[in-house]
Structures are given as C-alpha cells and as structure tokens.
Amino acid sequence: MRKLSFLLHIIDAISEWVGKITSFIIILMIGVVIWNVVMRYVFNSAALWQHISVCGKLLPAYVILGGAYTLLTRAHINVDIFYRRFPLRIRGIIDLVTSILFFLFCIALLWRAVGSSVNLPPWRTLFPPPSSWLFILAMPIGVSLLLLQGLAKFTRDLIIAITGKELA
After folding, report:
1. Tens-place pLDDT, residues 124-139
2. Burial level of 14, CB count in 10 A (0-12/13-18/19+)?
C-alpha cells in the first residue's frame, strides 16, 4: 500500500508541476493581445491573423495541458447538490461508474491527438509555424497526463469504494 501511495503521489506531483507551468501560457497570450493592440492603435498596422493564429493554438494547448491539474484539484464541474450528501463509499462507487465514460473519452481523444500529430500533411512537417509545435505536442502529452491522473483518481476511488476510507 505504501508503494501505491508513493506512485500516486508522483502522478499528482507531475500533474501539479505541468499545471503550474502551463498557467504561464496565459501570460504569453496576454502579451500577444497587448502586442496586437499596441500595433493596431499606436502604429496603425495590426496583423490580426497573427493574434488569431497564435492564440488559436495556445488556448487549446493551455486547456489540454491543464486538464490533469484540473482533475487533481477537483475543479471540474460536479453536481454537488446531490453528490456531497452521499456517504464517502457511495461517492467512490459513483466516481468509479462515471469513470468509464471518462476513460472512453480520454482514449478517443488520445487516439485523435496521436493520429493528428503523426499524420500531418507533408508540407507542414517540413516547416510548420512555430506556434504549431506547441499545439502538435500538447495534445498527446496533455491527454496522456489527463489519462494518467484519471488512473490515479480511479485507484483512489476504488480504495474508497472497498474500504470506505480515503488513502492516507
């Protein structure tokens, strides 16, 4: 049980580390927006396509890379009005049942993310735009981290469903 707890702690630490680093993407996006505003209103020469292209790739990367951290901190939407009233063991069982949908979604998303990253058109593999690299790499990495954090949550929920207590 101690080794399992240590492994779950490592998964949590990775999710937390990636989530905190990913949070800096917002600062980069704010910088792009400020740059566009300054170029448009001060120098009268804004390139709107740059703003859309860069932010259009950074926002999905931000969302998908932050998914594991969001799952770790239990920040996803939940119907708490009923859920919190159940005993801990029942909540664990409910989470186990709903995790089937979570894993199906993650596997389908990972399948598409890896397929999209591997099967790029030949002209994009030679010289993709710099902002494309983040998005191309973020999708499979982010979904893999989300899946790994989901496995950690599933393990904790299984222990709760069996013992009625949370893992220390």
Report:
1. 555 556 556 667 788 8
2. middle
